[in-house]
Amino acid sequence: MSNNVPSTSLVCFIVCDGGPAAHFAAFATNLSHQNELQIIIYATGPALTKLKDSHLPNDIQLLSFSIENFDHEQQEQVATQLIDNCLKQGTRTIIVDIGNKFDRIFQAVSSKRNIPNDMIHFWCYYDNPEPYVPGGYSIKTEETIKSSQYILFANINLAKSNSIIYSLPEKRIDLTNKIVEGIGYYPVTEVEKLLQQREIEKDSLRAHYGWTNIQHLFVYFGGNNDAYFDQAFPTFLSNLSHIDKNIVQDVLFLLHQHPAAKKQNRDGLLFQECLSKNNHIQGIISKLRTSDQAQIVADAVLYY
What we know:
Blueprint: E1 9-15, H1 18-34, E2 38-43, H2 45-52, E3 60-64, H3 72-88, E4 93-97, H4 101-113, E5 121-126, H5 137-146, E6 150-153, E7 166-168, E8 171-172, E9 179-182, H6 188-208, E10 216-221, H7 226-241, H8 245-248, E11 251-256, H9 266-277, E12 282-285, H10 291-297, E13 300-303
Parallel strand pairs: 1-2, 1-4, 2-3, 4-5, 5-6, 6-9, 10-11, 10-13, 11-12
Antiparallel strand pairs: 7-8
C-alpha cells in the first residue's frame, strides 16, 4: 500500500465492490472539479478494476490495497493502516462502501479508535436503491451500520425519518441516533458514457472475442446468493431449454458471473450442464473483465 499521497487531501474513499465504485468515481470527479478538493480513492478487488476503467481525472489518486485471503486480524491491520494514511493527510471525511465484510471490520476499527467527530467523519455508503437486498448485502449492511455513526444513502427516500431498511425481510436495521443523509444519486453520466462506448467499442470488442458471426448476443448477469443458485438461475435454465429451437438458433447466451461467484462456480457448472443436455443452445461463460464491457457487447440483458 502506497503512502505517497498529497498533504492537501481532504476526502478519502475506500471501496471493495464494483457497484459503489462506479458511484465513487462520479462523486470523486464532481468533488474534485466543483469544490477543488484533493481526493484519494483506496480500492481493491472488483472495485479497483472498475475504477481503472473509469478514466478518472489526473488529480484524483487511485491507490490499491489487498485483503485477499487475509484473516480477520490481518484485515484489521489493513483497516488501521488505511485510517492512519488518511489521518496523516488531514482528511476530514472518509466514505466507505457497505456490502463487503471488510467494510464492517473497517468501521469497527475506526469506532474503537474514538477519533473525535470534529476531527474526522466516517461515512458508510448504502448504494442500493431498495430497503432490503437478499443474498447477504443487507446482513452485512446491518453489521457495518452498527459501528458507523454516519450513513449516506444513494436513494434519498431511504434517509427520511419514517423510512425503514432491513437486514432480513422482517428485521429492521436500527438507525436510532445515526446521522443519515440522502443524495438522490443515480449515475446518469455513467449511463451516457456507456452508450457512447457501445457505439465506439461494440464491434471491436465482439471481434476480439470472435463473436462476429452471431446475430444476437444475450447477456445474463448472475447473482451470488442461495436464492439465485437454487431457484432463480435453475428456473431460467429450465425455461431456456424449453424455448423453440428456431428461436434460439441465432442467439449466443453469455453468462457474466458475479465476481464473488466465480471461485465456487456454482452457476457456471449449472450452465455447462444445461448446455451439454441442449446442444441447440449456444452459450459460454463470460471472460469479459467488467460488467460495463458485458453491456457494451449485449443486444439484450437478462438479470436476476
